[in-house]
Design goal:
By secondary structure, the protein is an all-beta fold. The chain has two domains: 326 residues, no CATH class; 146 residues, Sandwich (Immunoglobulin-like). It is built from one helix and 33 strands. It is globular, with a radius of gyration of 24 Å. The structure holds copper (II) ion. Copper (II) ion binds next to loops.
Amino acid sequence: MREMRRGRGLLILPVLMVAIGVSVPSAASAQTGLTPPKVVKPALPAGTITKTYKVPLSIKSGQNLNLYDYIKANQRPSEPGWIVGFKPDLKLADGSTPPVDQIHLHHLVMLLNSDIVVASGEEKTQVTLPTGFGYPYKPTDRLMLNHMIHNLTATPEDVVFEYTIDFLPASAPAAASMMGVQTQFVDVEGGKAYPVFDVKRNAGVNGRYTYPAQAPATLMKRNTVRIQHAGTLVATAGHLHPGGLYTDLYVTRGDKTVKIFRSNAYYYGAAKLASWNVSMGSTSPNWRVAVKRGDILSVQVTYDTTKSAWYESMGISPVALTNSPSGGPDPFTDPSAIDQTEVLTHGELKENRDYGGRKTQGYADARKLADGPTLAQVNIKDFLYKQGDLTMPGKKGLPPLVAPGKSIKFVNQDPANLIFHTITPCKAPCDRSSGISYPLADAAQVDSGELGFGPAGVTASANRVTWSTPTYLKPGTYSYFCRIHPFMRGAWRVKAAKAKR
Ligand SMILES: [Cu+2]
């Protein structure tokens, strides 16, 4: 298993999907939640075989790596045919499902030759193609798994990817009438191997930030995919991260652009959009859009910015495109004929319910602590901030001082190609239990990035191990956490030095 660069020009297929947005008239209603639509499963073609495959993986302590593995012969169908459905899951070695705030499935993408066939994230959206459509498959195809499992704890874990494939063998009578599809990977970051962007708190308009529409012009246009042959779009679902409200998928022909689907994020539970407890709206089995060669697909994603900054966010709407035209309304002459009904591929998942934010004795309230030493540098090692860590008793736990106009340099001294840490300010006292919804990145503009090293373009790391606090900070106590390991908490204090006697 190793990090590597994904080839350019991948077509991503279908599937996927992750959490998306909510079509709501106001940020306020996003907090109260939309009523989720129903779960709909298209009928499987006669002769479909449903089988679960397992890929065991060892996850190092605290890892947040974007990795690739070949899928072995016993982890995939052994005969030619059609992949018509895909359901991802992640288990511990004992068969139990880990809580999302401890082991987090950042993403799971299956690559068939160089094309993305299916993809999923923590929301675990399933791939369910309308009946009669499938991804053509041969046992000789190169099949790879791109996975990013984030271990939010300091404990190594053995985990098992479990994915269930609905597979129609080519020998089944129903196979004769199947229509092949391939994935168009429509992504706000242009399908980069680690396609993320940051959402700053209070960015956008009225607490909502739409990307890339509201981003600087230089960032625009990555979010487009050109259709290479006439065909029919038959399925999509959005993928987004906590804080996301919805993705919108558009098609452009000449100077006309039409929205063809909104995928809303349906959040469950008290934490609402500050969580992974979400299902994404998917197209119904009746959704069809006829497209022509040269049409441009594009996606926009909208986040709520009233609650938090959201780092390393995504906005993706993979679309299944048939290999040749298969009917459907023309979006430019008959847009109202496109079925905009949303369905879900699954309901609430219990492993996504642990939000954090409970009272705990584990952390000091940094505002009440005495001054620590004046320091120019704070090292991070063994999942501890070596001065000012809110879990450390005694002098080591006191916030280091820095004079106004000066900065403290943080240095990650853990194995930097394996364990990434951040310094991400959170609202004081930042002393409650860790979960997906706690702590939240409170400050608008300050974050260290992930201190560590990895292959450029693939890694989540910033490819540096140091970060210095800004010199413009006003006097006060600044509590922070590590957003890779949220149990890590610390503080520093900006304070004028005492006059020398
Ligand atoms: Cu960390």
